[in-house]
Amino acid sequence: MNAPNSFRNQPPTGANSFRQQPDSRGHFGQFGGRFVAETLMPLVLDLDREYRAAKADPAFRAEFDDLLEHYVGRPSPLYHAERLSDALRTGAPAGMGAQVWFKRDELNHTGAHKINNCIGQILLAIRMGKTRIIAETGAGQHGVATAAVCARFGLPCVIYMGAKDVERQQPNVFRMKLLGAEVRPVTSGAATLSDAMNEGLRDWVANVHDTFYIIGTAAGPHPYPELVRDFQSVIGREAREQMLARTGRLPDMLVAAIGGGSNAIGLFHPFLDDPSVAMLGVEAAGHGLGGSEHAASLAGGFPGILHGNKTYLLQDEDGQIAEGHSISAGLDYPGIGPEHAWLRDIGRVEYDSATDAEALDAFQLLCRTEGIIPALEPAHAIAAVARRARTMRADQIILANLCGRGDKDIFTVANALGVAI
Amino acid sequence: MTARLAAAFAPNRPALIAFVTAGDPSPAATPAILDAIVAGGADVIELGMPFTDPMADGPAIQNANIRSLAAGTRTADVLAIAKDFRARHPEVPLVLMGYANPMVRRGAEWFAAEAAEAGVDGVICVDIPPEEDDALGPQLRAHDIAPIRLATPTTHEARLAQVLDGAGGFLYYVSVAGITGLQQAATGSIEDAVARLKATTELPVAVGFGIRTPDQAAAVARVADGVVVGSAIVDLVAQHGGAPAPIEAFVRSLADAVATARQGVTA
């Protein structure tokens, strides 16, 4: 097929479009913005200017598309999961049980959707003459993708990773090192993703002259939420075209897991102006929304300001940031991208959650019905698919983003299932 | 009251601005520490509001934040500390320094009103740049609290007007592109930067980041209207468990050095 890779190639936007955010200050309604220290402000403004120029530059787009095709392996397949669909119809009323389809972004180089964004940002870094790359990582997927593109372009790379995550994600730490990155464990705070992001910002503020910060999710100061979304929107553009080509129609519902929300916004954004397409973002409910051990910033948080943007945050009544918890290290971030905060408040996208236990069940279900080992992040999306499919007619279509593969998670899953490997 | 702050910066009399984190090592210990800082001769108190994610701070102040929060410091404690300080020291200016989220959590109007009620003179919010001023600035100005803005080595000429628009109290020059408490900038580069800033604003210009010793403070006092010392004081709080005497002695050594530098300026 002709992959609609290039990010200029969007469906047209109308007067009441949901796809014209953010405004020139980077605000999505009341969310987003540029809440950074003065040292970083001139840099963030430079990045904004350079991103506008890159977006309008056919050579930049051509290089982005070429790397996505030949280095990342795009377009990723659109797959009809027939055995999973059948399994979910068991016990559903007659005629109920939607068809489940997957966008196979777990087949990308480095095993997740993260690489789409890293390709875009390293091209921007090179365009801006930056010679050193930094990034934060939680589960290590963004770290591995960043390390890969840095090796590909010969730029030195420092990855900040919470010391706790370094411990529980050893295979990805080793992958990053193999790819030539320096992994710096962060011991401050809770020693997880949020602290890694703080340390990334501290490095950036001290090295503004030569360093580019590749942020891994659609959050942070403007223009990051916008540019990460644009780079990840290749997921939704491909899916939209593939679905139309295969079935002659649009899906009835999109489903994606949400940590910061980059895979979800990448899938959702090109469909936002298709009124027949419902959308469901799935947060990590950890041990349950009733307690404090979860990472569902929309369900359990309040608007606040952190890491450069205004968005929903897990926090106490004094505005102190709470630690997120999830079995998935990629979802336990206490915030969420500002566009999701806006889409939730205006009601265009519905948000739900899945617990650790539900994600583990869904993980195993997909393994057994389709021969696909998903990452624990999309396992949350699959758990929500399992709930929703039964409430939809058998001729309806649910399209979920299979945004990462589960190789990195087999130790966590074995541990949770009480298996020694 | 912005007048109290203005009075602290007399011509040819550079001010010593001393930073300490509220609630470190405990909310109960902070009043005596503040009294020691005043007794040592500081002209302005910069009281840090603890935050879980102090992105612009180096290890010394990060750890002070962690100690304070571990001791159970709440926003109400910080405001009570400020209010009690104002009762004991009616003339000494006090500014709150911190991050946006604890300041806007209950609404910018709530925070500005509470801070005004507590006798706070100015607020330094690290992560609200002029572009996002409407998140807190209008409410502070309405309550006669100075929104103290930061300029840095990366703040180019064209941007300065925007930084100064709506600013109050003093202009805080962050002398190094980096986090608090680590390296110090070369005195020559500070002198140039302060001269550049003073050409564009009537506000006093205070210099901070990386100033740890009386000698460094004196060198900066010769070229700026104010000298900010933070991490070195916070380190002493940690080292002596919050005991006031060593803090008073250290602040006095800084104040003496700044005073000597003042004489150098007037001579």
Short description:
The complex is a heterodimer of chains A (421) and B (267). In chain A, 41% of the residues lie in helices and 17% in strands.
Task: Report on the architecture of this protein.
- The complex is a heterodimer of chains A (421) and B (267).
- Chain A has 421 residues and is of the alpha/beta class.
- Chain A folds into two domains: 27-71 and 114-228, Rossmann fold (3-Layer(aba) Sandwich); 75-111 and 233-416, Rossmann fold.
- Chain A has 16 helices and 14 strands.
- In chain A, the strands form three sheets. Chain A has a six-stranded mixed β-sheet, sandwiched between helices.
- Chain A is globular.
- In chain A, 62% of the residues are buried.
- Mean pLDDT of chain A is 94; it is low at 1-6.
- Chain B has a single domain, classed as Aldolase class I (TIM Barrel, Alpha-Beta Barrel), CATH 3.20.20.
- Chain B is built from twelve helices and nine strands.
- Chain B has helices spanning 2-8, 30-40, 59-70, 75-88, 100-104, 108-117, 137-142, 157-164, 187-198, 214-221, 231-239, 244-266, and strands spanning 15-21, 44-48, 94-98, 122-125, 146-147, 150-151, 171-174, 205-208, 226-229.
- In chain B, α2 (30-40) runs parallel beside α12 (244-266) and α10 (214-221) packs parallel to α12 (244-266).
- The two termini of chain B are 32 Å apart.
- Chains A and B meet through β2, α1, α8, β11 and β12 of A and α3, α5 and β6 of B.
